[in-house]
Amino acid sequence: MNPHPDLTVGVIQGLGWLYLLLFFANAAWTAYSFKNDGYYEKLFGIRHLPKAVMWASYTGGLLALAITHLTVGANADEFTLKLPDWFKKAADTVIADPKSFFGLSIAIYVAIILLRDWWVKPAVAWILFNLSVLFIAVSMTDFDFRQIVGKPDNVPILGMLYLVGFTTWLYFYKSKDNDKRIAEGRPLHEKELSDQVLVWPDLVYTEMICMILLTALLIVWGVVLQAPLEEPASAVKTPNPSKAPWYFLGLQEMLVYFDPWMAGVVLPSVILGGLMAIPYIDFNTKGNGYYTFNERKFAVSTFLFGFLPLWVGMIVLGTFIRGPNWNMFGLYEYWDSHKLEVLNNVNVSDYFWLTLLELPLPKPDPQAGFISQAATILLREWIGILLILFYLLAIPPLLAVTVFKNFFVKMGFIRFMVMANLFLLMASLPLKMLLRWVFNLKYIVSIPEWVLNI
User: For residue range 94-142, what is the model confidence (pLDDT) as tens digits?
Assistant: First the structure.
C-alpha cells in the first residue's frame, strides 16, 4: 500500500465540499449577474439571452463536479480529475528557480499596475478568484502540495493572500471610480457619503455582528484544524528547515543575501525610519482622505513594489517554497532533506583580484599595526567600497537631474536626498538578489576582520 497516495477517498470528498461551497457562491453571483448584466442581443442564434447564462452554465458544472467528488467509490486510484504530471514538472521548474519566481512576482506587480482598469471590473475579479480557488482545489490532489499548503501553520498564510488580493482590488476599484470623477469634474465618492450614522445603535450593532461571525469562524477553525504543536524543543534535534514566524520570513529571506547586521538591524531600521519620514518628505497634498491612483502614482507604485514582491512575495517564498537546508522546492516537489545545491559564491574582491588580475588577495599581517592592516584591507576592498559610495552618493544627484527632476525641484535638496536614499536602499534588496543569482555574488564589500560585510 502506498503510504503517501496523491488521492484518498477523504481528500476527494473534502474537495467535493469545497466545490459545493464554490457552487453556492457562484449561484449567488449568477443571480447578481442576471439582475445587473442585462442580455445578449444574439448568442448561438438565440436572441435576448441573459448574460448570466454563462455563469449559470459554469455554476451547473461546479454542482456536477461536487456531486462527482462526494459520491466517489472506495477506489480512489481510479479517480482521474487531478493534475497531470507534465503540469507539475513545468510548475516546479518555474517555482523552484529563484530567478523565475522573483520574475513572476514582478510580472504580477506590473500587471496589477498596468491592467488596473481591467482586472478591477467585478466580473473579471470574480473570474480570477474562481481560477485561484480551482487551481488550489486541483493542486490538492497532489500529496506534496497538500502537505505544504494544508499544514495548520500555513493555512492562515493562504487566507492572508486572499485578504491581500481583496484589499488591493478594493483600493484600485475605489481609485478608478474617483479618478473618473476627477476627470469628469464630479465630486469625489467620499464627498457624497454625507449621511451620518450614530455610534449607538448603528456602529455598535455592526461591530457586534462582526464579533459574532469572527467568533464562530475561530471556533470552526479550532475544531477543524489541529493545533500546530510539535515535540518539546531539544538542542540536539532542531527542525529542518528552522523557520521564523510568518511575519519574519521576509527578514529571514533577506539573511540569504545580506549579513545579519544588515538584514536584521540596518534595513528594518531604515524601513521604520522611512515610514516615519514619509509625512515630512511627501510634497503631494492630493489624495488625502480619498482613494486615488492617478494623483499618487509614484507613492502607490513604490509602496506596492515594497509590499507585494519584496514582502508578501518573500513570505510566500519562505512559507511554501523554502524547504530543508533552506533549498527551494517546487509546489509539487517532495521536501527531500538530502537535496544539496552546490553554490560557489564569491565577493567583488575575488572577481577583481583572482579572476581579473589573476593575483592573490591582499591579506593583512596579523602582527602588523592597525594602520598597516587597514591599508591592506582597503586595498583589497577598494573597488567594492567605490561601488557602494557611487550607489549611495552619486546616483541620487543623477536621479535629480534626470528621471526625478520634477521631484527635486518640488522637494528641495534635503527632502529629495532622504527620499532618494530610502528608495535606493529598498532597491538594494532586488539588486543584491539579482547579483547573487546571475553572478553568484556574495558580498560587494567583505571585511571579516571588522565584521563588516555588505
Answer: 998 888 999 999 999 999 999 999 999 999 999 999 999 999 999 998 9
Q: What is the C-alpha to C-alpha distance for residues 298 and 304, in angstroms, rounded to an integer?
A: 10
Q: Is the pLDDT of residue 451 over 90?
A: no
Nearest Cα residue to 112 out of 179, 183, 158, 173: 173
* Per-residue model confidence (pLDDT) at position 362: 87
Task: Using alpha carbons, select from 387, 383, 394 the residue that is nearest to residue 417.
Answer: 394
The CB-side HSE value for 83 (13 A sphere, CA atoms) comes to: 24
CB atoms within 10 A of CB 121: 12
Q: Which residues contact 37 (CB under 8 A, 6 or more apart)?
A: 50, 51, 52, 123
Which amino acid appears at position 240 of this protein?
N
Q: For cell 456536477, what's the residue?
A: 64
Please identify which residue in the block is written with the cell numbers 482622505: 289
Residue 202 confidence (pLDDT): 79
The per-residue pLDDT for 215 is: 95
Rounded Cα gap, residues 235 and 262, in angstroms: 27
Residues 6+ apart with CB under 8 A from 91: 330, 331, 332
Overall average pLDDT of the 24-39 stretch: 88
Q: Which amino acid is it at 419?
A: M
| Crossing angle for the helix pair 98-114 and 85-95, to the nearest 10 degrees | 90
Handedness of CA 177, 180, 184, 190 (dihedral sign): positive
Q: 94: Cβ–Cβ under 8 A, 6 or more apart, which residues?
A: 100, 101, 104
Q: Are 325 and 209 in contact (CB under 8 A)?
A: no
∠ CA 116-251-440, nearest 5°, is: 90
Q: Are 113 and 301 in contact (CB under 8 A)?
A: yes
CA–CA gap between residue 382 and residue 23 (Å, rounded): 64
In this predicted structure, the answer to whether residue 381 has a pLDDT above a threshold of 70 is: yes
